């Protein structure tokens, strides 16, 4: 297996992942190898498509590349238009699965029901949404939740570091944040902004690499995104403790890093799972390897029993057909 933390330090993900063979246009069939050395082993052919969270993307990048080695005749395409953008495509029936850094919303559930799409939710890993500054920033080590509110909620003023602590520089804070289609934005809005407006001067992007680069380049910048993006760039970024707790594997897993610890999800179209052998096989591979890949890229694996339950839930879908 590749060293995923090393690979991510250079680049986590482009706008889409297209891995696997591109020759087949079949929606998914199982065949048997005729070669004498591999006779009797099930081989899957077909296409699988997904979209959604850029936070979940590092896990999926690793899974997709590893899966391409296991099933080279399956083409898996995964976009990163954000959790909300991914659900829009999922509702339109354009994708077989949707990655999400927040639970599905009631209005999205209603839209899926109206569209006649049944789905299954699977948890993939835990994340600690990380607040970061440049390594060159030598004054911020810790912020409270109240500090985050004061910084990030729009109040009509020009925010300065000295507003938080009079000993900090009298310099304007430069903000970077996930775009409004991002589940990370939604989660931050829920637990920090509490539906108040995000500071209007923030640079927004669904691409977390854009946020990373902006914060790296400005000593007065601050931003937030998934923990894996901090881990991959910790030589140039500094993570900020929240109420004295730094995001680490242990604090994320225990829930001690509160309120910014959260689960990560993948939502699968049930019809795709039952009618498309490639989609079912890829989802099974994802659940079997999500924990290992989550740890490899900097997230926190679920307890093994949770993955076992998810695999049983997946198997039950086809057994009920």
- Average pLDDT reading: 89
The N- to C-terminal Cα distance equals 35 Å
Helix content: 25-40%
| CATH fold-level assignment of the largest domain | D-Maltodextrin-Binding Protein, domain 2
The biggest beta sheet is recorded as: 7 strands, mixed
Number of domains: 2
Topology pattern, helix = H, strand = E: HEEEHEHEHEEEHEHEHEHEEHEHHH
Structural class: alpha/beta
CATH C-level of the largest domain: Alpha Beta
Assign an overall shape.
elongated
CATH superfamily of the largest domain: Periplasmic binding protein-like II
**What is the strand content?**
15-25%
Q: Spans with pLDDT under 50 lasting ≥5 residues?
A: 3-41
Count of individual helical segments: 12
The radius of gyration is 21 Å
Note the quaternary state here: single chain
By CATH, the architecture of the largest domain is named: 3-Layer(aba) Sandwich
Kindly state the number of beta strands: 14
Subunit structure: The complex is composed of two ATP-binding proteins (PstB), two transmembrane proteins (PstC and PstA) and a solute-binding protein (PstS).
Subcellular location: Cell membrane
Function: Part of the ABC transporter complex PstSACB involved in phosphate import.
Keywords: Cell membrane, Lipoprotein, Membrane, Palmitate, Phosphate transport, Signal, Transport
């Amino acid at each position: 297996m590749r060293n995923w933390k090393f690979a991510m330090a250079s680049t986590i993900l482009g706008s889409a992942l297209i891995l696997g063979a591109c020759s087949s246009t079949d929606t998914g069939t199982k065949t048997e190898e005729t070669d004498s050395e591999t006779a009797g082993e099930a081989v899957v052919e077909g296409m699988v498509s997904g979209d959604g969270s850029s936070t979940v993307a590092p896990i999926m990048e690793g899974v997709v590349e590893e899966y391409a080695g296991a099933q080279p005749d399956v083409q898996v395409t995964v976009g990163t238009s954000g959790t909300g953008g991914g659900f829009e495509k999922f509702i339109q029936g354009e994708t077989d699965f949707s990655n999400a850094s927040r639970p599905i919303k009631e209005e999205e559930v209603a839209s899926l029901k109206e569209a006649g799409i049944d789905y299954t939710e699977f948890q993939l890993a835990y994340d600690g949404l990380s607040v970061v500054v440049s390594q060159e920033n030598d004054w911020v080590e810790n912020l409270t939740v109240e500090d985050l509110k004061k910084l990030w909620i729009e109040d009509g003023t020009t925010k300065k570091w000295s507003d938080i602590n009079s000993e900090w520089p009298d310099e304007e804070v430069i903000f970077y944040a996930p775009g409004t289609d991002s589940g990370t934005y939604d989660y931050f809005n829920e637990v920090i902004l509490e539906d108040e407006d995000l500071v209007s001067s923030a640079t927004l992007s669904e691409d977390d690499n854009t946020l990373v680069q902006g914060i790296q380049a400005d000593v007065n910048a601050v931003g937030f995104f998934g923990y894996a993006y901090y881990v991959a760039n910790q030589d140039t970024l500094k993570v900020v403790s929240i109420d004295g707790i730094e995001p680490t594997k242990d604090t994320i897993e225990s829930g001690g890093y509160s309120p910014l610890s959260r689960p990560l999800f993948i939502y699968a179209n049930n019809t795709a799972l039952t009618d498309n052998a490639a989609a079912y096989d890829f989802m099974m591979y994802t659940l079997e390897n999500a924990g290992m890949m989550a740890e490899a890229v900097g997230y926190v694996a679920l307890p093994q029993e949770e993955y076992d339950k998810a695999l049983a839930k997946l198997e039950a879908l086809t057994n009920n057909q």
